[in-house]
Design brief:
By secondary structure, the protein is of the alpha+beta class. It contains ten helices and 20 strands.
Length: about 425
């Protein structure tokens, strides 16, 4: 009996101890349950999550414990110190994940006191920012004839180092350029390329737009911009204008030819692609002005046209020679020409005579090498290069060679030739 009594006492004490432990057990509830995965977050950027910690109805009373994050400094919270929760009371905590490298992270949110230990698990991955390229950096459609269309491709490459898909949204203002199919929003996986087509159908002489590319990359300007340009090809019209101008010139309708060449020059200004046609019109305008002689400054204006046409470096070989011939002929007709202008005449005339023996102007055979040499003689005389002038006179009029190099004799010989060539 004594033995049974002692056993009863022991069981009673054990039962009492268990009851004490049950009374001291706290039930802490996390919402969401016991863990949170932040997923992929760009390196040095942040992601936040609100969790709720509740001292449940099942707890014996108020709870007091320390709240900390352990195992990784990449996870932070907006609370520190001792957390006190009455029974059935909750507290909202904001957790923040800030990865410092492209790797996986894990940690624990720990709430504990000497009677309770509660853990909430945290995970997340650091990822490199989106890095991408656009090729080409601009689209130049060049010349496209009216009524025709031309298509060019534009590629977007999400680099292999990107930690996310590239999200793109394209905005192309209305005009002569369109994206066939209208696909303007798409995603591109890392190390993948998306190619689109841009179509140009010219309605204006020159079109220029900017394609805006909105994206989710934090390492480049947003939106990115792609310049797009195209030119309605009016080459045929301009060439036809020039042919018409030369025909008018050959028919001695110099005022009309001046206007026709001027029209070509003005229309060519829309783009440098027409420079060769424009320079040809400038050459025609110079010769038309020279023969028209409408103003007192006709020679100076023609000289300027010839010089600009030649210096443009877009003329054909024959037209280049005609421009040099024009410089020579017009230069000596300028009233009170400068030394620089006479030197230009000398240079131009020598180039024509040395490179093109028996030169004839292709649109008027009455202008030939004799006129060019006569202009050279006058330029030498006005530059006081009397010996050189006499040498050229010997070539031009060999029957009277050798010519005197005295200014008086040279002037008389030059005047005698006026109107004879």
């Amino acid at each position: 009996m004594r033995y049974l009594f002692h056993i009863s006492i022991v069981f009673a004490l054990l039962f009492s101890a268990c009851e004490d432990k049950e009374e001291a057990k706290y039930v802490i509830v996390f919402d969401p349950a016991t863990e949170h995965d932040f997923g992929k977050v760009e390196v040095s950027q942040s992601a936040s999550k609100k969790i709720r910690i509740k001292n449940s109805e099942e707890s014996p009373g108020p709870f007091t414990g320390n709240l900390t994050i352990v195992d990784s400094p990449a996870f932070l919270m907006d609370f520190s110190g001792v957390l006190v929760l009455q029974k059935n009371e909750s507290k909202d905590i904001y957790l923040t994940f800030i990865p410092s490298a492209a790797e996986n992270y894990s940690a624990k949110l720990v709430l504990q006191n000497d009677k309770s230990l509660n853990e909430f698990y945290l995970e997340g991955s650091g990822a490199n920012p989106v890095s991408f390229s656009i090729s080409p950096v601009s689209l130049d459609f060049g010349l496209v004839a009216e009524g025709n269309s031309k298509e060019l491709e534009l590629s977007f490459n999400n680099n292999g180092s990107s930690g996310f898909e590239l999200e793109l949204s394209l905005d192309l203002p209305a005009g002569d350029f369109v994206i066939p199919g209208g696909e303007t929003n798409f995603s591109i996986a890392p190390d993948a390329i998306k190619t689109i087509t841009v179509r140009y159908t010219p309605t204006l002489d020159i079109s220029s737009k900017e394609l805006q590319v909105s994206h989710n990359s934090s390492v480049r300007a947003n939106p990115a911009k792609v310049s797009i340009a195209g030119i309605k090809d009016i080459s045929a019209d301009l060439v036809s204008n020039n042919l018409e101008g030369w025909n008018l010139f050959k028919n001695k309708d110099y005022p009309a030819s001046v206007l026709k060449f001027l029209d070509t020059i003005n229309k060519s200004r829309v783009n440098a692609v027409y420079d060769s046609i424009s320079d040809e019109a400038l050459l025609g305008q110079g010769w038309s002005r020279l023969f028209e002689r409408r103003t007192n400054s006709y020679a100076s204006s023609a000289f300027s046209d010839f010089l600009n046409a030649f210096n443009g470096s877009h003329l054909s070989e024959n037209s280049d020679t005609d421009a040099l011939a024009g410089i020579a002929v017009s230069g000596v007709l300028i009233t009170s020409a400068s030394i620089d202008q006479y030197n230009a005449v000398v240079t131009a005339a020598n180039l024509v005579l040395n490179n093109t023996q028996g030169y004839e102007f292709q649109y008027n055979a009455n202008v030939d090498h004799k006129d060019i040499r006569y202009a050279l003689i006058q330029a030498y005389f006005n530059l006081s290069s009397f010996t050189e002038a006499a040498k050229q006179l010997d070539i031009l009029v060999p029957a009277n060679a050798p010519h005197s190099s005295t200014p008086e004799d040279l002037l008389a010989a030059i005047q005698a030739l006026a109107g004879q060539l």
